[in-house]
Amino acid sequence: MSQNKYWQSFGEVNDPENLKKLSQDEFQEELPFEGFDDKGLIDAKAPRRDFLKYLGFSTAAATLAASCKIPVNKAIPYANKPENLVPGVAKYYATTYVQDGDVIPVVAKVRDGRPIKIEGNDLSFTGGGTTARSQASVLDLYDMYRAKFPLHRVTKGTDVTFQEVPTFEQFDKMVGDAMKAATGSVVLLTSTITSPTTKEIIAKFPNLKHVQYDAVSYSGILLANEASGFGRKIPNYDFAAAKVIVSIGADFLGTWLSSVEYAKGYSKGRKIDEKNPSMSKHYQFEGHLSMTGSNADERFTHRPSETGAVAVALLAAVGGSVTAPAIADAKLAAGIKKVAEDLKAHNGQSLVVCGSNDKNVQVIVNAINSAIGANGTTIDWSKPVNYRQGIDADMAQLITDMEAGSVGTLMVYGANPAYTHPDAEKFKAALKKVRVTVSFNEKMDETTELCEYILPTHHYLESWGDAEAKTGVVSFLQPTIYPLFKTRPYQTSLLKWSGATQDYDTYFKEYWNTKLGADGFNKALQDGIKEEAPAAAGAGSYSGGAVAEAASAIAGYKKGTGVEVVLYQKVSIGSGSQAGNPWLQELPDPVTKATWDNYALISMAKAKELGIKLDTDYEYYPGKPVIKVTVGKKEVELPILVIPGMNADTIAIAVGYGRNDGLGKTAAGAGKNAYPFTSYNGTTVDNFATGVVIENLNRKEKIAQTQIHNSYEDREEVVRETTLASFKKHPNVIPEWKQHLKEAFYKNANDDFRQATLYPQHEQPGIKWGMSIDMNACFGCGACVVACHAENNVPVVGKSEVLRYHDMHWLRIDRYFISDKENPDNLKGVVFQPMMCQHCDNAPCENVCPVAATNHSAEGLNQMTYNRCIGTRYCANNCPFKVRRFNWSDYTGADSFPNNQDQQIVGKLDPVVFQMNDDLTRMVLNPDVTVRSRGVIEKCSFCVQKLQAAKLDAKKENRPMKGDEAKTACQTACAADAIVFGNSHDKESSISKVRAENTQRGFHVLEQLHVLPNVTYLAKIRNTDEIDAHWGGEHGEEHAADSGDHKTGEHKADSTLPSVPKTEASH
Amino acid sequence: MIPCKPIGKKLTLTLLSVFVFSFVYVSAQDIAAGKAIFMGKCASCHQIGKNGTGPALAGLEERHKWADHNELLKWINNPAGYMKNDPYTQGLLAEYKSMMTGFSDITLKDVDDLVAYINDADAKAKAGPSTTTTTGEPEKGNSNAIIFGVISLILAIIALILMQVNSNLKKMSDDAEGISRPEQVPFYKNKIYIAMMALIFFAVAGYYFSKAAIGLGRQTDYAPVQPIYYSHKVHAGINQISCLYCHGSAWDSKHAAIPAVNICMNCHKSINEYVKGPKLYDEAGNEINGTAEIAKLYKAAGFDPAKPNDWDPSKAKPIEWVKIHNLPDHVYFNHSQHIRAGKVQCQSCHGEVTAMDEVKQVSELSMGWCINCHRETKVDFNYSDSTGNKFYSIYEKFHNDIKNHKMDSVSVKDIGGLECQKCHY
Q1: What is the C-alpha to C-alpha distance for residues B311 and A80, in angstroms, rounded to an integer?
Q2: Nearest residue in chain B measured CA to CA from A950
Q3: Which residues are A237's β-sheet partners?
């Protein structure tokens, strides 16, 4: 039995008193009250008379400015209106998000010719799920830092200028002439290409060598699978079919291969049927705390260099004929043993995945999967996936060729080795020896700015195209907007330069028209996806021939001592290709809740070693100690973040940061580049480094974290979490607590539920909107947060404003660590809790608004009226969930007064705010949602514009609205279907059903306050055998027998849960 | 007073019943439904009393086999199929040179409604000039207020004079009786009078000041000069073009968009001079040359009336009309919601556009004005007689209340029509 504690910051664990004191201050910094010194008011910098003068003048000026000039607005209709287009009505086009080999079929919402929102495609293998990055991709379309026209890089001495090439014909001629003159081979360097038509074009290009290079490489898996007899491909993993899931360092819910699909499958095994509670079991072995690891039932940590040893030990334990290496860490050794037992017990129902890029390690993983009967059950080799195809040796060979001067022309698309390569300097030097260099990249990234000819390609929302994510499953791209800039598909350039006359659009249409017929092609475009009959042949069969060699190779690996660095991808930034995206930069990382930066994640033990005290000062103030991380000759200075549950000697750094200015003002200056810490081992690129030296530089840098911005002021019962064993033992803890609360309230209210409040009850005669969030299916990925940004025009505020607690997210995902009370480093799990306006029936915010700007609707919504709000912020203060956001500045440029963005007057805003206010970027705004101005409160509206639209559709069609018809943006974005929304008055709606079927897990946050939220949470259950003392009372063991007894329940509630404040029942 | 939907509807109904009585009994519901179908599907090609792209629909039942609505239905559902064995419709095609569009979703009931509407509209047109909507009741309340104001002012002045007379008389009687009193202060120096006058002044000035302040930014009667003198009276009034023919997106969208040049050119390809209609005058009283205004359209469209077949619509340039009805950005207003779900007539808010040459803003488009209508208007609730919008079947509480006679009708305010977040989000 253990005593668990839920906590968000080290301050809560180590220094609660001080933290409480600090969090009572509204402002963390000293407020700049100028001029209030002893000289008296009249001599102060702003004396009273001046104040009155300004007041009078500005009132008069405001009145004049706001009202006297009535602007003349023009209404300019189409000259020739397209027949199927109605202004003001959105159209939806199926297309496909393609980035670095990632393929996510999506549906683009196009409003008056502008794509403004990305939704998942329900017909596809992703089941309609999306990621944060695909949600944010629509903003990349309107990125003002995109390369806008063909450029020629001209070098004069040391001066480098980029000159615009006026026409494509001129550009074609320039490049054509240069290519003809250049001796040597012609090489096309790309990220993974999944498009069948593009592959055909590349194949037809005479004497073209195609090299695929992935920023974060999966060569290890590809080569290992080849060695294991399956061919050079990556299989399809079925996480839904697996009862036991073991991940050795694979972040499969966040960044590993097709995380959307995996999250969907994984969530199916994690959702609980109360009648017969069971769920899949997830073990994670890793060095640092990844997002996937946070969701694991049991985690074991190891050094990154030990990955191979862990895999071999696991293979030995499941019965493989290899010698188990010695595992020094007793906990880890025991873990491997336990996992092996579980795997053996679930033969044919389990799956092992590994994030390592080492061929030998992956060979061992294949052997484990073969031993546990995963092939053909949870691993499908008949439909291999094509997300990553780059082989690191090819890239190494290319650089050697370039250095030797045998490459005449190098064309680059999608790849950015000058930034992502382990030895970028070597690549840059080699690039100088190539005679003709051409870049097709969308932005002036690190590689593109070194190329001589730059012909930017379309954004995917402007393109025709196709992507074969899995063999036989093709998804299609179709343009949703006319190209914004003078760009051209790179395939067209390849066609032109190979002598063809067609452009890519025609080529693509002809290819598929021939293959599918005109009707079939139209249908495929409309669906966005076309599934062909799976190829029966070519699945291959397992051969264990390479195992012995791999095991002995692993045994020969150098044992790591001292500190090691592991590189990881953040779910928001990934490998860095979308780093210029403001929504993604401001999306808090799931685990650290940090925005706008990368940092060194270190363990609590290491922090202690470095002399960093984890007190309230460390946690509360944004300045974090900076360390210098040195590997060989490479060094990086980064602020640290201490995270529990890390391997003591592991430091984790996210890649994708530290960009050049060409990528835009958003990415520039955020974090440091960690790619130099990767290294090429002769076969593959290693994403970790050993022999690391760290040094405390005794200075601080600020990191903008959001987790501690909102305090629940010591109120408990915000998260509810327990283990599967405890839940089975005491299934009725939550219902009993609810009953207890009800009785207490009723007693104070003459046994009348309605009288348990001072305020009149609101009636909902027709619809009552409600939401339910399954915390077992929320993995923290943040797709919903970005979707909310896009749907509701939520502003981006920039790092300096996040540092001042001014972040504007309507929806935040709170992260709670679960650990022992005494030992916070003994991390047992992490709870992710999406938190947005709870739309309380007894909303405390409504009662305190002096101007009734927030009030209740007849459909149970807590409405916020911006044009009525005068900015007292009383509502935000009185909100127990701290979900209301205040526009401290004019983040959106919506104010009538241009002065509100004057840096002299309102304080400095980051450049990103101005980027978001650019006319081009503003094209992404949803025209149905007001853009809020300075001085008003905003918050989650349950996407009221979508609810209104759903109701109107039903009214227009003269039919009742179905309970599930209206969907919120967060709900549709979620790959794991964690969010259910609908009309709770409709008994047939999913929300009613979910609530009725989950009475044992359903709870409201802070239920004892009797604010009656309309958002239900389903308690998180971890699949472990641990008996959780927090759940079911201190005397859980003794009362196990009579847990159904009502008296016991009440007693438990009294003793362990905060008792109902009897005198405050009507608050 | 603003002519809101209920008043308009009631009057329309009364008028309609007068006209319809002498023919056959047709329920207003059918005519309304027929009108909706006509506007949505037919009006782009057909007019009631006049041949357009297709033949005039008045007197439809007297032609061919159309008295049998089943035949008519077959024709509407599948014109191409029907035509194969039907010389009459083949003749129509030859005459009008454009194929009738088929509407497979039209039912027999729809045809009945449609014909009912066509007959009704035809009868009305024959009976005399259009009286479809009224401009509202005379502003009784307002004139009463003026009368009361004037009376109280007169009474106040009389009272003042009487008081003055009284004090003078008193002074005279005092003088006569030899009582000496301190010199009377003249009334304009009397502090009480001054205070009272100041109070009245502030009250009156404050009233007008605040009223003016509230009215700032409102644009009632706003009638800007448009790039082309386009007369709604000629188009929608005299020629009876349906509002939705040009502003079709009002049916589907939040915007009642201004028609594209190609919509204008649908008709103006053949109508290239203004001769028959009444003389047109601008605001200053200058006569407008209609033909010259049509030429302005041709300029934008890039159309040469001498060579109509050479016209390339893709070369057209949009016309920069001046927007008359401006709502603030924080207001969400949806036209389709009002005309389809709410069944509000265009004229309820836009006034008698059919009588306006240059359109002006009739309603003040203020929040109070919106809210007032939401307060009074009944929703198309599906009462127990199973008419009305089926959407409202989910309002169980109201159905029960109506059954138990706790309420007799449901208005927009009952379903949340006064709530902030119906229009502000």
Answers
A1: 13
A2: B391
A3: A379
Structural domain boundaries, residue B296: 232-355
Using CA atoms, how far apart are residues A1033 and A1055, in angstroms rounded to an integer? 7
Give the length of chain B.
Answer: 425
The domain spans of chain A are: 151-217+390-527, 219-385, 561-705, 721-1064
Q: Which residues of chain A have pLDDT under 50?
A: 1, 35, 1034-1067
B226 belongs to a structural domain: no
Instruction: Report the domain count for chain B.
Output: 4
Backbone phi, psi, residue A461, to 5°: -75, -5
Give domain status of residue B134, yes or no.
Answer: no
Q: A80, B261: Cβ pair inside 8 Å?
A: yes
Question: Tokens representing A485?
Answer: 């800039």
What's the gap in Å between the CA of A949 and the closest CA on chain B? 10
Task: Give B261-279 pLDDT, tens digit per residue.
Answer: 888 888 888 888 888 888 8
pTM to 2 decimal places: 0.82
- Domain match, B179 and B241 both: no
Kindly identify which residue of chain B lies nearest to residue A960, measuring between CA atoms.
B391
Query: Are A382 and A534 spatial neighbours (Cβ–Cβ below 8 Å)?
Result: yes
Q: A219-385, which class in CATH?
A: alpha beta
Is the domain spanning A561-705 CATH 2.40.40.20? The answer is yes
Does the distance separating the beta carbons of B319 and A77 come in below 8 Å? yes
With an 8 Å Cβ cutoff, is A86 touching chain B? yes
Residues B24 and B93 in one domain: yes
User: What Å distances lie between residue A785 and A573, A587, A773, A934, CA to CA?
Assistant: 14, 7, 14, 22
Q: Are both B257 and B325 inside the same structural domain?
A: yes
CB contact under 8 A, B415 and A960: no
Question: Could you tell me if B11 and B109 lie in one domain?
Answer: yes
Paired tokens of A514: 């021939």
Q: Is A33 on the interface with B (CB under 8 A)?
A: no
Distance, in Å, from the CA atom of A745 to the CA atom of A732, rounded to the nearest integer, reads: 20
Does residue B366 belong to any structural domain of this protein?
no
Q: Which DSSP symbol is given to B302? A: T
Q: Kindly compute the dihedral angle of the four CA atoms of residues B302, B308, B312, B316, in this order, to the nearest 10 degrees.
A: 30
Same domain, B171 and B97: no
> Which residues 699-738 of A are in CB contact (within 8 Å) with B?
none
Q: Which two tokens stand for residue B296?
A: 């302005």
User: What's the CATH number for A151-217+390-527?
Assistant: 3.40.50.740
Mutate which of A72, A85, A86, A862 to test chain B, going by most B C-beta atoms within 10 A?
A86
Interface membership of A960 toward B (CB under 8 Å): yes
Q: Is A347 on the interface with B (CB under 8 A)?
A: no
CATH of the domain spanning A721-1064:
3.30.70.20
Residue B284 lies in a domain: yes
Test A952 with B337 for CB contact under 8 angstroms.
Answer: yes
From the list A853, A929, A960, the residue facing B390 with the nearest CB is A960
Q: Answer yes or no: do B238 and B350 share one domain.
A: yes
Contacts of A929 in chain B (CB under 8 A): 425
Q: Are residues B407 and B304 in the same domain?
A: no
**Do residues B92 and B165 both lie within one domain?**
no
The maximal CA–CA distance of chain B, rounded, in angstroms, is: 119
- The model's pLDDT over B178-228, given as tens digits with 9 standing for 90+, comes to 777 777 677 778 888 889 999 999 999 999 988 888 877 788 888 888 999
pLDDT mean for each 10 residues of chain B (425 residues): 43 43 51 79 75 78 83 84 82 76 80 86 71 42 78 92 87 81 73 90 92 81 88 88 89 89 86 83 84 90 83 87 89 91 89 88 89 89 77 86 85 88 90
- Nearest by CB to B261, from A70, A79, A867: name it: A79
Same fold, A219-385 and A561-705: no
Whether chain B has a CB inside 8 Å of the CB on A113: the answer is no
